[in-house]
Design brief:
The protein folds into two domains: 30 residues; 128 residues, Glutaredoxin (3-Layer(aba) Sandwich), CATH 3.40.30.10. The protein is 51% helix and 18% strand. It has a four-stranded mixed sheet with strand order 2-1-3-4. The longest helix is centred in the N-terminal third of the chain and has 27 residues. The termini are far apart.
């Protein structure tokens, strides 16, 4: 066998092993969404009048195609909120929604909250009106570190719940 052929075979094997390793690593970092979250995501059509009349709404906006990273963002955000804000959720001072921003009936959210990609948005509501909102754009940066991700989400929710 020629040295050039051997080198080519070794390099191709290295590339194949690297790709498989990367896929396996990504799969380990994705926690599967709960049955409830899958149900919500599949039925996630929430017109504006169904958002809380008063309080803070944490919304995960997703598109029609949901990659593993997008699913992690949803899962991590939900868990960070549920773990830290159980009392606020129970008292309806805070609510969690999952909305497919690519559905025609949700176009108003794309414009109102400037949605261009899957994201988490905190929406302050008073008397059935949005008074303030914030797109938590660092979720993409922090998705590789679940603890930092949760701290970021929880800090931003705390700020919004504290008010202006």
């Amino acid at each position: 066998m020629k040295p050039k052929t051997v080198l080519t075979s070794v390099l191709l094997a290295f590339v194949a092993v690297s790709v498989i390793g990367t896929i396996a690593k990504e799969a380990r970092h994705v926690s599967p969404p709960s049955v409830e979250r899958v149900r919500q995501a599949n039925n996630a059509t929430t017109p504006d009048d169904e958002l809380a009349a008063d309080g803070l709404v944490a919304i995960y906006f997703h598109g029609n195609v949901r990659c593993p990273t997008c699913r992690s963002i949803e899962s991590y955000a939900h868990d960070a909120i549920a773990d830290q804000f159980g009392e606020e959720l129970a008292a309806s001072r805070l609510s969690w929604r999952v909305i497919n921003y690519e559905l025609p009936e949700n176009n108003q959210f794309v414009d109102e909250f400037q949605i261009v990609a899957p994201s988490v948005v905190l929406v302050a509501r008073q008397n059935n009106t949005t008074t303030n909102w914030e797109n938590l754009d660092r979720v993409w940066e922090l998705v590789g570190d679940q603890a930092a991700f949760a701290a970021y989400i929880q800090q931003e929710v705390e700020k919004q719940l504290a008010g202006p």
